[in-house]
Design a protein that fits this description.
With about 325 residues, this protein is an alpha/beta fold. The protein contains twelve helices and seven strands. Strand 2 and strand 3 form a beta hairpin. Helix 4 runs antiparallel to helix 5.
Length: about 325
């Protein structure tokens, strides 16, 4: 059995206007989930209540009764409207509330409904004409479900919603933008190809793009017709690569820097007992032979030290 709203919530404090609006509201059903974290309150009345007022009352119930608990309160409206209301009149009077509800639900459906053209060919149909986009086609079914629920369950009508699509609107200055873009493309192409003249701003955009395309094709043909390197050029470049000389180094050589200038001088030891390859070549033949024999004997002594049982001293041949 339905009860008056303030019989169910006797201590609820509301604004004067809101309280007057809810004096004729009845509570038809109150339910909660098993976890007691969500409370549904179904209310009924004979007139429309703006959705903004419904949200305000939900907030006050949660604040005054469940401030210390994690509980969500939701009011479900049931409007028992008179016969003077038609779907079209209902839309005119309740459209702001529908927009607010869609905005809180999803911004995509909100923008889709806000930009749609509404038509009521008869009392039982609602046609929504929206722009034909991928996003609109993906969300159209959900928007239809929400609108039919508002009209049929909340307001007691029998309305069927249908979505129709229209071409996406072009910008107000689209033609001027196209001409401007075409002129910029022609100017850039002319500069890239070294053209001296720039197309006139009063010329048609399509002709400018065609001229730019012809110039670009001519430039491509000129590049394709360029001289290929002959065998002499290839041989010269190969010799330069094998020489290991970079372009920067070759430039230095042209400026008077010779290759031998980069050779490092040999540093000789001041110790007279140090023998080098150059010193050995200058020694007399007999002395060089003795030095070689001593070197062989020294190497054999080092190797025999690693083999057990062998003498570490050997007599050199005469």
């Amino acid at each position: 059995m339905a009860k008056q709203f303030f019989e169910v919530f006797p201590t609820l404090k509301l604004d004067k206007k809101v309280q007057e609006l809810f004096e004729q509201v009845t509570v038809e059903k109150v339910s909660a989930t098993k976890s007691r974290d969500f409370i549904r309150v179904t209310i009924g009345c004979d007139y429309l209540i703006p959705k903004e007022t419904i949200y305000r009352v939900e907030s006050e119930i949660k604040k005054q009764f469940f401030s210390s608990h994690q509980v969500a309160v939701k009011l479900y409206e049931r409007f028992h409207l008179s016969e003077q209301y038609t779907p079209e009149k209902l839309m005119n009077a309740y459209k702001d509330s529908i927009l607010l509800e869609l905005k809180n639900y999803s911004p995509i459906e909100y923008n889709l409904f806000k930009g749609a053209d509404l038509a009521f060919p008869d009392g039982g149909q609602l046609f929504l004409t929206v722009e034909d986009t991928v996003l609109a086609r993906s969300k159209a079914e959900e928007l239809v479900r929400i609108l039919e629920k508002i009209f049929n369950i909340r307001c007691g009508f029998h309305v069927t919603c249908r979505i129709e699509y229209k071409d996406k609107k072009t910008g107000r200055y689209k033609e001027e933008d196209d001409l401007k873009i075409a002129r910029q493309v022609a100017e850039i192409t002319a500069r890239a190809l070294g053209a001296g003249s720039v197309p006139d701003s009063s010329s048609d955009g399509q002709s400018m793009t065609q001229d730019a395309g012809m110039k670009m094709k001519d430039g491509v043909k000129e590049l394709q017709g360029a001289r290929k390197p002959d065998e002499k050029d290839k041989r010269i470049s190969g010799e330069q690569a094998r020489s290991g000389m970079t372009g920067a180094f070759q430039g230095k050589e042209k400026r008077g820097v010779r290759k031998n200038d980069f050779k490092r001088a040999v540093r000789r030891s001041d110790n007279p007992d140090v023998l080098t390859a150059g010193t050995l070549r200058k020694m007399p033949c007999r002395l060089r032979t003795l030095w070689e024999k001593w070197a062989r004997w020294s190497s054999r002594e080092r190797s025999s030290a690693l083999i057990p049982g062998k003498s570490r001293m050997k007599v050199l041949p005469p």
